[in-house]
Amino acid sequence: MPRYVIERDIPEIGSAERDALREASQKSNGALAEMKAENKNIQWEHSYVAGDKTFCIYIADAPGLIAERSGFPASKVTPVKRMIDPVTAEAD
Questions:
Q1: Per-residue pLDDT at 56 exceeds 80
Q2: Angle at Cα 2 formed by Cα 29 and Cα 48, nearest 5°?
Q3: Cβ atoms of residues 77 and 67 within 8 Å
Q4: Distance between CA atoms of 5 and 76, rounded to whole angstroms?
Q5: In this model, does residue 68 exceed pLDDT 90?
Q6: CB count, 10 Å around CB of 90?
Q7: If you average pLDDT over residues 59-71, what whole number do you get?
Q8: SS3 for 42?
Q9: 80 vs 28, which has greater pLDDT?
Q10: 72: how many CB neighbours lie within 10 A of its CB?
Q11: For residues 66-71, average pLDDT
Q12: Nearest by Cα to 13 from 57, 54, 43, 65
């Protein structure tokens, strides 16, 4: 399945308390559980919280699934073409 970076503009999310982040995660998990029960292929890997944005990493059959029911607006959906990490620098 393709991987996507989802940019979400959420004012003051970077200063949110742990309970607010937990609540947001529970809301997302609930939406994902509903979609999986409908046999939709989607998985939330993790998110980065920075300032007034989150950058969420999802695997999904189609980018439209990502913003379908989470309740958080997707400002930008970018397909991931490739991944690199420190191991990429090593010779074969």
A1: yes
A2: 50
A3: yes
A4: 8
A5: no
A6: 6
A7: 77
A8: strand
A9: 80
A10: 20
A11: 68
A12: 54
